């Protein structure tokens, strides 16, 4: 998701017509400030009743996939959700705050760093609490995060991991003391604190050589399986990882903040029904499901809307 990831920190930079009502009921509704759902074709406090919800879709494959997924869940819950193409967080978040959008699908650490630069940490709970507070001040409510993430991650071949009993970056660093490893990643990885520079300074990884590769590519997988590199930089949600003989190592010293998928909602449209529909997707969206869905979009070139529909069915929505 390089389009919206923060390059400094490594985190990601139709309403239905109301039914006719009698004059007496209309007067009653006016007295109640039109808060009853029977008075106006769907109140956010009650039954959705076809309430129009505009879902912003960021301009990269996963952004479009997730926007369609959450929009489908809203439609199934009785809302009238539509997709609004949105270039980036820099345009999407102001639109969300001002009400031009009602929902965007975000990432916890990236959105936190957008609101307050370089503020994400390795403490997931603290990140979420700070994000909730900052978002509230922008007229935005963040709901429940999904287990799935989209952040920088580091992988080895599964055969290598099994042969040397390596599951964490610390274990690989220990191995590298007598067996310096070849690392591969994008060009900027070399001096970024969340990439090669951090692997060396935080973990003490001994590096024999660095190779430039294309992020989220088959070429990156091939470097591992052909033993041309022992550690390669990926995005944790890469479709290319679905079914690939690659093991993502646990970042046990927190080089990268976890960037969980999370719905962000304009506070004025938040309701129990809307929250239930969106949180119902998030709680079931695992890493494997996201990676496999991304593979269908990124690798197999299936339309994001079609993949989202199938994924919602798989989630039981």
Description of the structure:
This protein has two domains: 2-13 and 51-149 and 262-314, D-Maltodextrin-Binding Protein, domain 2 (3-Layer(aba) Sandwich); 152-248, Osmoprotection protein (prox), domain 2 (D-Maltodextrin-Binding Protein, domain 2, 3-Layer(aba) Sandwich), CATH 3.40.190.120. Helices cover 38% and strands 17% of the residues. The radius of gyration is 22 Å and the shape is globular. The strands form two sheets. It has a five-stranded mixed β-sheet with strand order 2-1-3-10-4, with helices on both faces. A five-stranded mixed β-sheet has the order 7-6-8-5-9. The protein has twelve helices and ten strands. It has 317 residues and is an alpha/beta fold.
Low-confidence stretches: 1-5, 14-45
The strand count comes to: 10
By oligomeric state, this entry counts as single chain
Strands side by side in the biggest sheet: 2-1-3-10-4
- SSE pattern: HEHEHEHHEEHHEHEHEEEHHH
The average pLDDT is: 88
Biggest β-sheet, characterized? 5 strands, mixed
Give the tally of structural domains. Answer: 2
Shape: globular
CATH structural architecture of the largest domain: 3-Layer(aba) Sandwich
CATH topology of the largest domain: D-Maltodextrin-Binding Protein, domain 2
Strand proportion, as a percent range, falls in 15-25%
| Terminal-residue CA separation | 26 Å
The CATH class of the largest domain, by name, is Alpha Beta
């Amino acid at each position: 998701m390089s389009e919206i990831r923060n390059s400094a920190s490594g985190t990601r930079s139709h309403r239905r017509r109301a039914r006719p009502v009698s004059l007496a009921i209309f007067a009653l509704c006016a007295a109640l400030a039109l808060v009853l759902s029977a008075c106006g074709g769907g109140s956010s406090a009650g039954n959705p009743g076809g309430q129009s919800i505009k879902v912003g879709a960021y301009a990269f494959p996963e952004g479009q996939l997730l926007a369609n997924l959450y929009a489908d869940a809203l439609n199934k819950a009785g809302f009238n959700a539509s997709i609004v193409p949105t270039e980036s967080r820099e345009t999407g978040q102001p639109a969300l705050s001002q009400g031009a959008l009602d929902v965007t699908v975000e990432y916890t650490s990236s959105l936190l760093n957008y609101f307050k630069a370089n503020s994400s940490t390795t403490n997931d709970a603290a990140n979420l609490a700070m994000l909730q507070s900052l978002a509230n001040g922008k007229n935005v409510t963040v709901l429940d995060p999904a287990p799935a993430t989209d952040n920088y991650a580091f992988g080895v071949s599964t055969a290598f991991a099994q042969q040397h009993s390596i599951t964490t970056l610390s274990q690989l660093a220990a191995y590298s003391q007598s067996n310096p490893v070849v690392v591969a990643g994008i060009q900027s990885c070399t001096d970024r604190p969340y990439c090669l520079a951090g692997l060396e300074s935080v973990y003490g990884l001994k590096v024999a050589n660095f190779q430039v590769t294309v992020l989220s590519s088959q070429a990156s997988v091939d470097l591992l399986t052909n033993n041309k590199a022992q550690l390669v930089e990926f995005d944790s949600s890469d479709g290319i990882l679905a079914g690939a003989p690659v093991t993502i190592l646990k970042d046990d010293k927190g080089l990268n903040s976890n960037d969980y998928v999370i719905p962000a909602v304009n506070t004025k449209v938040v309701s129990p029904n809307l929250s239930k529909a969106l949180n119902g997707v998030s709680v079931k969206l695992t890493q494997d499901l996201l990676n496999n869905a991304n593979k269908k979009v990124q690798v197999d070139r299936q339309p994001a809307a079609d993949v989202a529909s199938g994924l919602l069915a798989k989630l039981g929505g």
